[in-house]
Amino acid sequence: MWESEGVTAAADRPVLLDRPVCILGLGLIGGSLLRALHDDGGTAYGYNRSPDTVDAATSSGYQASGDLVATLQRAATDDAVIVLATPVTTIDALLPTIAEHAATCLLTDVISVKQAVAQSVSKHAAGMRYVGGHPMAGTSRSGWEATDPHLFSDAMWMVTTEDDTDADDWSTVASIARAVGAFVVPAAPDAHDRAVAAISHLPHLTAGATAAVGAGESDLALRLAAGSFRDGTRVAATAPALQRAMLEANGIALLNVLSETIDRLIAARDELRDQGTVEILVDDGHRARLAYDAIAGAAPAPITGVTIGAPGWAEELRRQAHQARVWLG
Amino acid sequence: MWESEGVTAAADRPVLLDRPVCILGLGLIGGSLLRALHDDGGTAYGYNRSPDTVDAATSSGYQASGDLVATLQRAATDDAVIVLATPVTTIDALLPTIAEHAATCLLTDVISVKQAVAQSVSKHAAGMRYVGGHPMAGTSRSGWEATDPHLFSDAMWMVTTEDDTDADDWSTVASIARAVGAFVVPAAPDAHDRAVAAISHLPHLTAGATAAVGAGESDLALRLAAGSFRDGTRVAATAPALQRAMLEANGIALLNVLSETIDRLIAARDELRDQGTVEILVDDGHRARLAYDAIAGAAPAPITGVTIGAPGWAEELRRQAHQARVWLG
Asked: pTM of the full predicted structure?
């Protein structure tokens, strides 16, 4: 899949994960993680509030339960890593129960913002060990029926990397990502939140605006719509509640990039009105897309020369990740 | 490919085209048209300014020439339909030569704006018969090497339909579209230009802005970028000169939809800043995308009850096309 030589694809490098994993929430991300870990021979089990999802998962051969407390008690007994995979809006209510029944477990998550989750953990599960995570994978569909055990193959999985992050806990969370075929991208929570505001959350708003303007024009317009509209508006099809939970939890970073986007579009409108050209925006956009293609189209360069836990390890991981390098474990 | 029952796919309905077709410009669209017509057994030949393109086309077994006058003289002798398939910025220079050497031919085009082309034809090839066309197909790549004889299969092909359009000429242009597997969408030039501003030209600007903001954030951001960024910025990869030629030729209609987009994004920013929510834009975008999916995901309903040339035929075609129906010939 990569255009240039480089590291072996992540999916080709199975990583043995010797810890059980307990996943809370079996939607697209949590359910796909359960399937990927289980299918690879790992011990993984999950909780979901909806009996339909639990039935669907268990009838497919996966371990799933609708009993949160029993699931957490099992995790505490197993010393499982607990993965929060529910919408960000639900975690304040979940965390006290987790802390009550599984306080000694290592906690991670797959939620698309990191500062807000870290604050919630500090407040509602104080004292628990926590290393945040965020796999950059998804589709516009949601729920168990959309799950895919290969969803994370060659995906980027951000793992929170701060100067006071515990090295063993970091390695454990990174190994979950590696076990399901993802590349690990170390980052600080604030840098992550700014990055995903720009490349994940903002595209939902530009897609939404583009879709709304197109549909507002006429059915003739929608009939004529082809690739540029289809691709440019795809993520607007995501369930609105999921989009809002994701975007609103990253409000400050999103405000910044949304304002920059508005400024660029206003400048383009003025240039078009006054000089009949859209040169600046088209050229900037083209250059930016080529920069993305250069990074996304090549095998990721590996982070090298770092021993997890050695002095300055976290800072060095972040420094190399800022050059678009990934941790291969 | 269609989710519901309905008309047979256009590609399954070969239409015999008994007229030669002369294509001026063998880039992505013109070259694909040459290949599609030729591969289907039709008589088609083309002109291109670049010797490399002519060599590439002829060495693949297609009839292509770098001699514009000789090509036009052949078209005049053949009574070929001439298809303008060069960038809109070049046609003012080409049209007088066409009018000089092939004045009796029927002229059409595959350019993405219709009012500007019609004005150029009136001015620089006055008296020639002309019916505009615009196939809604393409990729972000360009040139002969990107051509694909199946590019138009099941695509929408707009054909200019005005009250004074000649019925025989209209049928001839429509039959070219049908011969290469496209559906015919009748429309007036101004309605077409407004529609493509919304669903084809605007997405280039929102993609450009989204790409520029993402790349401006950090290489970490581009490393984390996944499907929403990749799809949402795809068309920004199109050659800038092609994007500018297309967008700037439709400036007035584009200004309108760009202004509406800016207004929607500003309203979303204010809502996010003041109330912490992006509900309105996310909901509007979601509803719009579902409306698009409903139209694009079903087999197009056919225009019925119209005899081309009967009183009111053009008006009735446009009326039904505004309900997202297509002409099947």
From this structure: 0.88
